[in-house]
Amino acid sequence: MVTWIYQRELLIKFAFGSIVLILDILGIYCIVGLNAYDVAVKYLANGMEHLETLQLSLGILFLVMMANLAFVSTYLMKLYFKS
Known about the structure:
- By secondary structure, this protein is of the alpha+beta class.
- The protein is built from 2 helices and 2 strands; from the N terminus they run αββα.
């Protein structure tokens, strides 16, 4: 009786972990694509334009996504080799 519950729990953990892994890879792909642009244009309320560089914000987001990717892939490897 406990085994099928345990197997279902492992399947759910593996499925959601795989979804998060795929979303992380997609996010990193989008960050690398956005890195090709030099500046972003913000339109202010008074009608003026403000140019902003993306390097710092994309760099921080890239580091966060890579850390998330490392943790999720480690978790999935633990699940895979445990069963």
